[in-house]
């Protein structure tokens, strides 16, 4: 006995679609769209879109302007916005460093001390506080118990 | 100019549609119909005749043409609705057709989506400000439409402040809405315009002329003294300079330069540069 072919309408029903995988679903969808698209009537007219704005007609500059340093922020904006209009914005690959290297080194110097203070015992903390001018000298070596010599 | 108008009148009398390509940069009058380039080939030398109906559209190349301000679609032709010069811009990168528009002059502004305008705050009601932009109704501006504004952190905007913003909704059926941020949420220079300075009104055509990339007037003005200008597409210009006198001189120049010839303008600038 041959398998009875299920009709297209049956296949389109929701409960039949749950078992299908995404590819078959997409294929079915595509076929549907094609059928619907061919049935639609359309006017054989040129594609004329109507736009009321002058922005796409003429290339206009950015509306805020500043000259001879009157408003530096606006001058920066002018460069930015007009460059965007002229050509594709070509992102600056060089990242601006927020903090200079020197400052970073200075911070790390004191950072070692600050974190060290946190984990030091009360006795060792004294040695940190003695050096208040900012240079951090590591605390003295831990004093171990010395066995008395006979 | 007289012969151009005579030609236009002739064509209207003959009621034959002219090709848009032949009328570029010439004066067109409302009511004229223009043919797009792809239709000229279909028209025989007699012109205006009947074209056979085609049932298959496959062979036709669909070039997407944009009809800009002053033009309207009428069947498959362009109908001119404003008087002025017809302009055309070639498409920059491939996506076909280009733009046709009419370069007309007017003083009354009609809000258009995407335009940057200068508005005056007239009222504060609840969560929105009412901003007068020179159109038929005041635009609404939500207090959240500023950079860094949250429900707790309200922007510092009072009645009477000047706002530089752009329209997000602007059509004939709804009240226009404007915002002071772009689609990424950044201000990009929009927002409240600072104190002092002078706001005055000019025609819309002058604004477009001054904002053209190669405008000599702006370049010359910029060499005079330190100043700041904001142009709104609704015909409003705000200027500010160090002293009141300089601000007034600037305002007078910008208002007058519409009707001056190049020589007159150069004379005035040289006189100013001396003093």
Automatic annotation (TrEMBL), chain A:
InterPro entries: MPP6. Residues 125-150 are annotated as: Disordered. One of its GO terms (biological process) is maturation of 5.8S rRNA. It holds the Pfam family MPP6. This is M-phase phosphoprotein 6. The lineage of its organism: Eukaryota, Metazoa, Chordata, Craniata, Vertebrata.
From TrEMBL, chain B:
Keywords: Acetylation, Cytoplasm, Exosome, Isopeptide bond, Nucleus, RNA-binding, rRNA processing, Ubl conjugation. Residues 35-55 are annotated as: Disordered. Residues 26-105 form the Exosome complex component RRP40 N-terminal domain. It is found in: Cytoplasm; Nucleus, Nucleolus. Its main location: cytoplasm. One of its GO terms (biological process) is exonucleolytic trimming to generate mature 3'-end of 5.8S rRNA from tricistronic rRNA transcript (SSU-rRNA, 5.8S rRNA, LSU-rRNA). GO terms for cellular component: cytoplasmic exosome (RNase complex); cytosol; euchromatin; nuclear exosome (RNase complex); nucleolus; nucleoplasm. The keyword Acetylation applies. GO terms for molecular function: RNA binding. Residues 197-244 form the K Homology domain. It holds the Pfam family RRP40_N_mamm. Belongs to the RRP40 family. PANTHER family: EXOSOME COMPLEX COMPONENT RRP40 (PTHR21321:SF1), PNAS-3 RELATED (PTHR21321). Component of the RNA exosome core complex (Exo-9), composed of EXOSC1, EXOSC2, EXOSC3, EXOSC4, EXOSC5, EXOSC6, EXOSC7, EXOSC8 and EXOSC9; within the complex interacts with EXOSC5 and EXOSC9. The catalytically inactive RNA exosome core complex (Exo-9) associates with the catalytic subunit EXOSC10/RRP6. Exo-9 may associate with DIS3 to form the nucleolar exosome complex, or DIS3L to form the cytoplasmic exosome complex. Exo-9 is formed by a hexameric base ring consisting of the heterodimers EXOSC4-EXOSC9, EXOSC5-EXOSC8 and EXOSC6-EXOSC7, and a cap ring consisting of EXOSC1, EXOSC2 and EXOSC3. This is Exosome complex component RRP40. The lineage of its organism: Eukaryota, Metazoa, Chordata, Craniata, Vertebrata. The gene is EXOSC3.
